[in-house]
Amino acid sequence: MDLKSQKVKLNDGHFIPVLGFGTAAPEEVSKSEALEVTKFAIEVGFRHLDCAHVYRNEEQVGQAIRSKIADGTVKREDIFYTSKLWCTFFRPDLVQPALEKSLKDLQLDYVDLYLIHFPVAMKPGEELLPKDENGKMILDSVDLCRTWEALEKCKDAGLTKSIGVSNFNHKQLEKILNKPGLKYKPVCNQVECHPYLNQSKLLDFCKSHDIVLVAYSALGSQRIKGWVNLNHPVLLEDPVLCAIAKKHKQTPALVALRYQIQRGVVVLAKSYNRKRIKENIQVFDFELSPEDMKAIDGINRNIRYSEMLFGVGHPEYPFSEEY
Ligand SMILES: NC(=O)c1ccc[n+]([C@@H]2O[C@H](COP(=O)([O-])OP(=O)(O)OC[C@H]3O[C@@H](n4cnc5c(N)ncnc54)[C@H](OP(=O)(O)O)[C@@H]3O)[C@@H](O)[C@H]2O)c1
């Protein structure tokens, strides 16, 4: 088997590659970089690309995909592209136009996966982060089940192959799963997940419902000021990860990525550095022992780098629940 194309079957019959390329970058990084690094990621073998409207780079990522199709490197069906519905578009009538806007930016006919990005609705409008005069985020109240029904319609319309959620806790997943008249289950829940927040309870819950857990910030996040609590320790400097990496003659980053794949988690890795992009695809070239896996399980400390504090107080703020 060609491990680089290793995929997992989703509950709707489609397949998702177990390693994905994260495209989010801080605002100061030029958008043309997104084009160049995404092309490079496809060249070295990434087939799963994770993006979102709110990253403001779908135009460049779409251009990269189309250029790699045009030069014969890949076909559209080789690529698994994920986009996400931002929080200002949760009202049901805004969902399909939001996906259509992403497709227009991408210049693609469909996305492979469309996710509800974060379960806290925000005031609709031009602003992606609508704030009041005191700088406080203006939130909105939308029943997530109604948003989900609008996503189901997008799937039926062929605009996305699969639909899922992101940053949902198990109660919010249950709410969707128990919704009367549910047509499609979420195929995945994309959440922060790494050895310091290993999400073992949420993972068990997802597995029991045939929902794939997709790990973001699997390398410990980009530690972007204002978004991440910088008092938390740096994951890739963890002594246990470093010792296991040394033993396998690999890097702590590769150990952190491999850990997820071996526990049945689809993992994203963001890098805008060519050497590290190339390195990350080497995750298929070695294996962790059961003892290594156990040791990594042992360093969990429930550290969440991205607490998305702007949503605290909203009834759907997801991180007040244990899992
Ligand atoms: N659904 C959500 O709410 C959500 C939230 C956050 C992220 N995401 C998605 O998940 C993706 C990944 O998460 P993330 O952006 O938090 O970053 P991450 O994957 O945890 O990566 C963190 C940092 O690690 C560095 N890195 C990459 N490969 C490395 C290696 N081999 N050795 C050492 N350092 C390495 C990268 O810096 P360099 O670029 O300098 O290499 C990167 O900034 C995002 O891009 C986005 O697509 C989704």
Automatic annotation (TrEMBL):
Q: Where is this site: Lowers pKa of active site Tyr?
A: 84
Q: Which residues bind substrate?
A: 117
Name the keywords, alphabetized.
NADP, Oxidoreductase
Which positions are catalytic residues? Answer: 55
Which residue intervals define the domain NADP-dependent oxidoreductase in the entry? 19-300
Q: Single GO molecular-function term?
A: oxidoreductase activity
InterPro entries (alphabetical): AKR, AKR1C, Aldo/ket_reductase_CS, NAD(P)_OxRdtase_dom_sf, NADP_OxRdtase_dom
Q: What CDD domains does this protein's entry cite? A: AKR_AKR1C1-35
The record's annotation in SUPFAM superfamilies points to: NAD(P)-linked oxidoreductase (SSF51430)
Q: Which family does it belong to?
A: Belongs to the aldo/keto reductase family.
Write down the PANTHER family for this protein, in alphabetical order: ALDO/KETO REDUCTASE
Q: What is this protein called?
A: NADP-dependent oxidoreductase domain-containing protein
Identify the taxonomic lineage of the organism of origin.
Answer: Eukaryota, Metazoa, Chordata, Craniata, Vertebrata
Instruction: Name the gene behind this protein.
Output: LOC102176340
